[in-house]
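Note to self: the last two entries modelled the partners one at a time, which told us nothing about the interface. This time every component goes in together.
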Amino acid sequence: MKRIGFLTSGGDCQALNAAMRGVVKSLLNSDEQVELFGFLNGYQGLIYGNFRMLEGSDFSGILTRGGTILGSSRTPFKTIHEPGEDGVDKVEAMKHTYFKLNLDCLVILGGNGTHKTANLLREEGLNVVTLPKTIDNDLWGTDMTFGFQSAVDIATDVIDKIHTTADSHGRVFIVEVMGHKVGFLTLNAGMASGADIILIPEIPYNLDKVVKAINKRKEKGSKFTIIAVAEGAISKEDAKLSKKAYRKKLERYTHPSVSYRIAEEIEKKTGQEVRVTVPGHMQRGGSPCPYDRVFASRLGAEAGKLILKGEYGFMVGYKNREIVKVPLEDVAGKLKSLSPDADIIKEAKMLGISFGD
Amino acid sequence: MKRIGFLTSGGDCQALNAAMRGVVKSLLNSDEQVELFGFLNGYQGLIYGNFRMLEGSDFSGILTRGGTILGSSRTPFKTIHEPGEDGVDKVEAMKHTYFKLNLDCLVILGGNGTHKTANLLREEGLNVVTLPKTIDNDLWGTDMTFGFQSAVDIATDVIDKIHTTADSHGRVFIVEVMGHKVGFLTLNAGMASGADIILIPEIPYNLDKVVKAINKRKEKGSKFTIIAVAEGAISKEDAKLSKKAYRKKLERYTHPSVSYRIAEEIEKKTGQEVRVTVPGHMQRGGSPCPYDRVFASRLGAEAGKLILKGEYGFMVGYKNREIVKVPLEDVAGKLKSLSPDADIIKEAKMLGISFGD
Amino acid sequence: MKRIGFLTSGGDCQALNAAMRGVVKSLLNSDEQVELFGFLNGYQGLIYGNFRMLEGSDFSGILTRGGTILGSSRTPFKTIHEPGEDGVDKVEAMKHTYFKLNLDCLVILGGNGTHKTANLLREEGLNVVTLPKTIDNDLWGTDMTFGFQSAVDIATDVIDKIHTTADSHGRVFIVEVMGHKVGFLTLNAGMASGADIILIPEIPYNLDKVVKAINKRKEKGSKFTIIAVAEGAISKEDAKLSKKAYRKKLERYTHPSVSYRIAEEIEKKTGQEVRVTVPGHMQRGGSPCPYDRVFASRLGAEAGKLILKGEYGFMVGYKNREIVKVPLEDVAGKLKSLSPDADIIKEAKMLGISFGD
Amino acid sequence: MKRIGFLTSGGDCQALNAAMRGVVKSLLNSDEQVELFGFLNGYQGLIYGNFRMLEGSDFSGILTRGGTILGSSRTPFKTIHEPGEDGVDKVEAMKHTYFKLNLDCLVILGGNGTHKTANLLREEGLNVVTLPKTIDNDLWGTDMTFGFQSAVDIATDVIDKIHTTADSHGRVFIVEVMGHKVGFLTLNAGMASGADIILIPEIPYNLDKVVKAINKRKEKGSKFTIIAVAEGAISKEDAKLSKKAYRKKLERYTHPSVSYRIAEEIEKKTGQEVRVTVPGHMQRGGSPCPYDRVFASRLGAEAGKLILKGEYGFMVGYKNREIVKVPLEDVAGKLKSLSPDADIIKEAKMLGISFGD
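The predicted structure of the combined assembly is written out below.
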């Protein structure tokens, strides 16, 4: 008999349910008896002991369902050692819940922040297996995270739709794509939709180069230009600032989004009308794409296998087309980002895409 | 032999190409010889005599293509009698082009603004047949416009996607839907996606009622609330202001979009986190939905029939499931909007949807 | 207090759940107390008293879900007066269940066959309100049925996909579209996807005319031809046969589908390779399109209103853009089909589409 | 100056245009002058010297377009040394065209058959670079082929749609998925859509095990079962037959498709109604998915790089997440198939999926 807790933490994304279903199906199809505890709304559920017992039927039909049946919330790692609103010691409370319920293991699905806390719990003596969830694909130790390809599909569809109206009206159009501090999502959606210019955090841009690329298109007879801008895109100039100075500079702008600032500058420098679209949270929503469903199911099954073998303290990741276990201490606190020298960047440049560098 | 000019004017939308293809196919399949002139970028092309000759092959494969192969632009009716940038008398220039090319008829695809100018050209003695294009469905004289159902599909898909993340995080989510000054698009997308609250221009909202509806959901155990807000939504209070006073009031806000203002107020009154998504121009882009392809093709075919019979001065519209011809003078300058007493509003209320009234 | 039974009968389609949700939401939002009985698997549930109590939460999140949460089955009207497998008198059994449970009303969702039985129950003294479900759109008394537009979307998408491969390979491609004995679905999907030839039951085809249309395309330089064939399509010759003789003739063919017979004949007469795709049941599956979600919700709300007012014996239909109540005796036993002289047929012909007539 | 010929051969698939666009963009963005020859309809165009000159504008907007702008055809390798219909020596004719046009290189996009011929041309002294196109993903030397993920998406969507109707009616449903002689496509689409049983050529099935899996589901209360069957699926018994004997056995069946034979046997053994859907060619059609657009563009760019460097005789493939060049002689004549011991198979089994073995 094994008693397994589940929680999903951080911003939700596609295939969280698919991944949990994978774990549960592999456990239920084994010879092991299991009891399943679903903690509600991320680490909050673990802290306050809010959970519901889960059964096989809870996982029926959820392979294709977006979001997470357990709810999620952000519990910032920064404040994990600070007392909660009600004075609770969060770490102690989580340990208390875990040991009181006599759990054998926690299955934790989340991104970078979530993994820091998961590793902390491991250090505190809890058995933990994690699964790499994020549309940003910025988790260290795995080539791929689930949610990523689904978000690429959505962002690509947005840019495809913008393409037809940009073409009709001969406009410069900026589509701001999610991705937090890394450019994987923007790069892939931009390449998939034929964006002309792609601005990502890993390659700080020079606005004059961006303007030059727009003008070059005009000279060649292209009436319109599509720019895919990562939400974390930054100019060469700003990249030189300290974090603090940059944050201060941002306060000057009325609009929080980098795309509007870029649009303003392009309008100033070209005299051309620039429109901005920020699809936002929809990139994390809806049914997972088939790739993510298969991928998350596979990771889930392998997580189940680790649990059955009692191998704890790992994230189930994906390296060189193989599913691998990665020690949590190796994952926590690291960020995976795109190398400016990556082949895919070079290929994008060969295709004529400008990165404004 | 007939010499027919085509132009698409105003914001582009789905099925413009499908509609033009419909006209052209019906002309080419008739016994009449035709020459087809495609004016570029809306009335601009007519003013400056920019056109290209079109052939049947130009219309092959465009049934499913978004945008307009002719390009479009806004040529505001307000300034139609003012000289152009280069001092040109726009109306005279359009007449000049028309008569110099010895055209038999102009086929004009557009929305409200476009129809005012089209009617003006009719008054000036030009033969005109128009087709009702707009995602807003706000054209007088027709039950339906092409582009509308495609935009409903897109906006619905956006809200569907937001639904899963709103659910996971227990948030209030606002999705701002296009529609200019009318609520058809928001109402239909909201009903289709199970929005809990729908705010449209035709029913000015009372923010306290909106907050009450959110709280009622919370009391019933619903963690999240989805609000579909039309870009033209207005509060009861603001609806009482003069246009000028309202415009002045808007200047106070840093963010141009009504949704952000509503979000701010809800956060203030409920203490709950509210997120906003503004899908924007993507609602007008991409391949037309099957409904619009059929509808636009049918309208196009009937426009072709009118041209062959030499019946000019009409918009081809749709009334009580029949395609009809509507005199241009009846269409121009009028706005179709949703009646607050319409059956569909009553039905939406029966379903438990709040309009904040 | 009202006690309301629900059942879905016949082949399932999209928006069944949306329609039931509409009824239930409008009942729960009224002042009336209600108890909801869900009969399982169509009339079978009523005959054998298989049901489960339904609550508001059963209808949460099902607006977008395909299929029917109650299950469905075909209970042919032809055999309704014959004893069931276990000797049960079906009509008496249904009455027994209804009166034993002390129901106030049955809400029945179904197509043509279902409506015959629903009307029989009405004649037997049961209170019945029905909703028009079918992808075929062949129900008398309503301009539209839910499921239809969703099926049009799917069939159109299939033909769109076939288009690219037909084009690449220069082939004649037949796509067989559902629709039972009528051509609405095939006509709309065919027009939406730019099919070159459309064969529907209402216009029996002449194979020589079909071949002529293919050859005409070839002469004009079109390498490929797309034919949308309704599953009920019939040749002029076969249309003259008695039903019995036609059925006998069909037995000669090894393949049950009309498309394969047509393909064989075209290959024989043209020497050209013909491929057939039969997408089949997928046309009835998946999430309802936004149009159907709104439409079914509206019909459901109005059905709720009828129930609250105690107006029974009606189908809730749609006529000239208004939702209306249609006496069940007027609906039962009639088939709505497409007139060969309908405007849409004429328009399709203006667009150059051949019907093989 | 380089003179480059292009041809697409074999069954078409998604992203052929995207791949060619990638090659052309990378050539046009280089310092090299190029002339581009597009051979029509596969090797036929090379044999008969049918081509058209291509320009950059031919590749504008085709990233998202399905099919191939050059047309394709099957030119079986088996008969490559036999004279053509008009007595032509095919190999000599291809060489003649190549040398007469003074080409520097041929870019050939195709699958297994295509690569055999491409390698033959290499042996004959032609410079060749190839790109791996097939929805089957059965090309040796590359982990992935373009078209594959797009086909997975389509087949998954079909099974998703079938799911709702199978559920409503409590039926056994078979969906036949393409994939030629290998199971990659069926396995991935089956896992993505939650199929209960997956039958692939690499794991010959035992019908009794299939029936057992269906019955086990029934015992657990699942009314319906979804079976994804690869078009190349084969029973353990038949797998023992010689190719000739198997072909003879197939002749006994009136229906060519393996799914109908399996359906018949299941109906016989379970008494349960079984329905079959064969989506067919639509799996190869329509716009490529974002994954394939990026992947094909990247391969295309790298092919362009090889051409610029004058490195010929390679297929551009993908190994361990890197784009690599694979000698054509290593690719030709080999088939990549799924190992029955692959991790993904084990994981699928952990998830409770039966392979009928």
